[in-house]
């Protein structure tokens, strides 16, 4: 195994097979970020979402996808042009991975792609054993970019040392929190409630993160949740969230987030009253 990859995996302390798969995906995520950085991807884009929160802010749960946003709208943005940088970076660390662009079936500003490879092949390179891994299982990491982002986000530059030193542009904490509140309020959960949204919401509050209200307002207007004429302040946001918390099936929410965390005991307090009480601590920037 490549020594750098071994060092990255050891820092994650995976134990179960599920944790080992997640650790492998997380290493792939960081190699992808390094490759994108080398290709100049972050001159026009910013990293955001749950994986940004985990890697750069210490979120204590695994996050599956890589989410990016342009800093200025550009419907001609060429995501595919960065694929060679990704493939070269993966090859440099011994990964046999391909990047596939997802063809759009509806008119959308979101461009999507998948990093794909064979799970068993990579497992055998990195871990001992592997008899329990189906030979045709696909190792997959999704990444997306919003080419028409809502206004109001603010950014910061951060650095990472592994797999090789690189620089990244990402949403700052208050802008990330605005995106998460938007997800809690507007995500179409249907029959699968994303407990991960709620878990991250708690994380922001526990770190006293303030909300970028301008960015949140633009996101909610874009989604049709509020209009440009609606009153909008932190009290209104608290009220919106409390209404949402009153309608959530918390049993389903817990089931969603459990596979992504090591200590599920913290979920025992999850109920409507808990979330309404902690929302009193929500602060605007």
Summarize it.
This protein has 285 residues and is of the alpha+beta class. The protein is built from eleven helices and seven strands. The radius of gyration is 19 Å and the shape is globular.
Explain what the structure shows:
By secondary structure, the chain is α+β, with helices and mostly antiparallel strands. It has helices spanning 3-12, 17-38, 50-57, 83-92, 119-126, 173-186, 195-206, 213-222, 234-245, 250-257, 272-278, and strands spanning 45-48, 66-70, 98-102, 110-118, 138-146, 155-160, 166-171.
Strand segment tally: 7
**Could you tell me how far the N terminus lies from the C terminus, measured between alpha carbons in angstroms?**
46 Å
- General form: globular
| Rg value | 19 Å
CATH architecture of the largest domain: Roll
Number of helices: 11
The percent range for strand residues is 15-25%
Q: Give the strand order of the largest sheet, numbering strands 1, 2, ... along the chain.
A: 1-2-5-4-3
Largest sheet: 5 strands, mixed
CATH topology of the largest domain: Nuclear Transport Factor 2, Chain: A
SSE arrangement, N to C: HHEHEHEEHEEEHHHHHH
Work out the helicity level: 40-55%
Identify low-pLDDT runs. none
Within CATH, the superfamily of the largest domain carries the name JHP933, nucleotidyltransferase-like core domain
Class by alpha and beta content: alpha+beta
Number of spatially distinct domains: 2
> Under the CATH scheme, which class of the largest domain?
Alpha Beta
């Amino acid at each position: 195994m490549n020594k750098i990859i071994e060092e990255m995996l050891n820092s994650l302390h995976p134990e179960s097979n599920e944790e080992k798969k997640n650790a492998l995906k997380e290493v792939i995520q960081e190699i992808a970020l390094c490759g994108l950085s080398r290709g100049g991807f972050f001159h026009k884009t910013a990293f955001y979402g749950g994986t940004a929160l985990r890697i750069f802010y210490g979120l204590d749960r695994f996050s599956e996808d890589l989410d990016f946003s342009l800093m200025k709208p550009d419907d001609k943005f060429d995501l595919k042009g960065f694929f060679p940088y990704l493939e070269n970076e993966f090859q440099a660390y011994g990964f046999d991975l391909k990047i596939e662009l997802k063809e759009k079936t509806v008119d959308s500003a979101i461009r999507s792609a998948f990093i794909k490879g064979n799970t068993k092949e990579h497992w055998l390179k990195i871990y001992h054993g592997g008899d329990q891994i189906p030979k045709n299982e696909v190792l997959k990491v999704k990444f997306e970019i919003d080419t028409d982002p809502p206004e109001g986000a603010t950014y910061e530059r951060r650095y990472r040392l592994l797999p090789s030193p690189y620089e990244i542009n990402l949403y700052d904490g208050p802008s990330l929190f605005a995106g998460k509140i938007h997800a809690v309020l507007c995500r179409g959960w249907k029959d699968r409630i994303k407990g991960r949204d709620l878990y991250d919401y708690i994380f922001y509050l526990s770190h006293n993160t303030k909300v970028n209200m301008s960015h949140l307002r633009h996101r909610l207007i874009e989604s049709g949740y509020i209009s440009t004429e609606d009153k909008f302040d932190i009290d209104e946001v608290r009220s919106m969230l409390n209404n949402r918390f009153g309608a959530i099936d918390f049993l389903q929410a817990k089931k969603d987030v459990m596979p992504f965390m090591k200590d599920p005991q913290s979920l025992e307090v999850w109920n409507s009253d808990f979330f309404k009480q902690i929302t009193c601590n929500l602060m605007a920037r």
